[in-house]
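Notebook B, p. 112. Complex prediction, attempt 2.
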Amino acid sequence: MAKRDPIYGIMAEFDSAQALVDAAHKTHEAGYKKIDAYSPFPIEGLAEAIGFHRDEVPLVVLIGGLVGGCTGYLMQYWMAAVDYPLNIGGKPYHSWPAFIVITFEMTILFAGISAVLGMLALNGLPMPYHPVFNVPRFSSASKDRFFLIVFSSDKRYEPVQVRKFLEALNPRSVSEVPS
Amino acid sequence: MPEEYKSAAIERAPVIEPGHTFGTVTEKISAIVLTRPASNGWFVGFGLCFMLTMMMLYAIGYLFLKGIGIWGVTIPIGWGFAIVNFVWWIGIGHAGTLISAILLLLRQSWRNSINRFAEAMTLFAVAAAGIFPAIHVGRPWLAYWLFPYPNTMRVWPQFRSPLMWDVFAVSTYATISALFWFTGLIPDFATLRDRTDKPILKMVYGMLSMGWRGSARHWHRYETMYLLLAGLATPLVLSVHTVVSFDFAIGIVPGWHTTIFPPYFVAGAIYSGFAMVLMLAIPIRKIYGLEDFITERHLQNSAKVMLATGLIVAYGYGIEAFMGWYGGDRYDAFTLWNRLHGPYAPWYLSLLACNIFIPQVLWIRRLRTSPVALFFISGVILVGMWLERFIIVVVSLHRDFLNSSWGMYYPTRWDWMTYIGTLGMFLMLMFLFLRLLPAISIFEMRTLLPEAEVKE
């Protein structure tokens, strides 16, 4: 395993959502690609501003739903028509209209569970330790402050220059994030 | 937003009172959980509800010992309080999903201040509902036979029966409601983790928040997930009460066997659910000083939803009566006559009063904006919706095709103890919820503030 950089990145703190979005745009345009932004609520356009475009959650949900629907239908078919055929009031063993309700419910169940687990897995959660929490002021990120970070893993990362660049964006404070 | 809509929106009562910032919203809601000491009133209320819960457990314990003979169910009324209460509780839960999922899809941002506790209400109502089918099966220790699992008897459940559909619909509903509620809480757990000074609470909330840090990438996936979950929960909630109504409508008993049941059950569910939301919201906003967040607008809108769904329910009654007369089936016609003139006529007339006539006062604007009036009207609607399920279950069964098999239904004290006990359990869980978790979604409230708007 490669030795970890003692500095995880450099973080700037902003007062408003607008300031964060503007700063994120400028940072991304300046060529810093490995960046992230933190806010106390979802901000429209912020993910695009830091260059995040591929959201795989819908695909996960689609697959989950298809698997759930097929499981639901095939389970009923196999149980009612193959493994344990039982004559109920002369109805056909494979009475498909009666199987639709459970097929539907299983579709929703699997799709819903894969939506939540997919979101958590793609976000890398749960994560008990993360370097950004080493910055004491970061506790306001869940209240009323907005943060932008340039990771030290960025190709163009150079501590002094990044700090200068972030300070030019008019933040409230700039701090180093120890990893 | 076009100009004309904007001016119309300003005239209405605001969703959140002016003057709040991200900080004040956060502090005000999290203070209920973190700093405000529990009042004596809370302890009294919680204690009372806890005792009722114990009474329910006692009644259920005795039931397990003696069997369902201690209840009032006999032939021909094999479905008594257990099914009445099950349908009533499940219906109440539906308003929570309607508020959190359907109103989200319709972009009704006023829902942001009531969705959290409405979802909690859904979860606790489904928990209360779930008790009844499990204990009414006769041999409750075998209730797991309802699920298809590989067994040494080499048999499988019978999937052509609506009762099996119900098992899947209700368990899916409980699972999805719990997921929706929990994922909605994750960002707020992070807020509580960062706000509290107590190391133990910090750890508990930290674990529950799963290390949420509000990254833009996370928020993006989170919002996609939330929207998709809402899109999945919307047809789900409509299907659940539809399937519950199939339990009746698929049978051939007069009074059950009708195609109006699914839409009329769903409307009735939302009707009673909003009544429960108001009965909870009105005291909560008063006691915890949340009038800034749960404003007159919320009360008015909920009252309007009740008015609309109440009219759909009234239409359902009308069609039932019309088809009884027009359908030409003598048993259907007799069911209608029996409701109006039979031994349960006073119950049916009270049902009409509670569900159709009294709620019409909501057309008056002054009553729609008065918390006290709304509280009492909601109570009347909840009683009315309970009576509706009683009429459907008991009155349809007590006089069916053969008059040699007619009978009457007398609920015993064990029936009442179980029912009142579930009310106690529901309220006890609500009391705990108010003190342990943020009752209003903090991060969604932040998005309603004017500072949250961003220009590209």
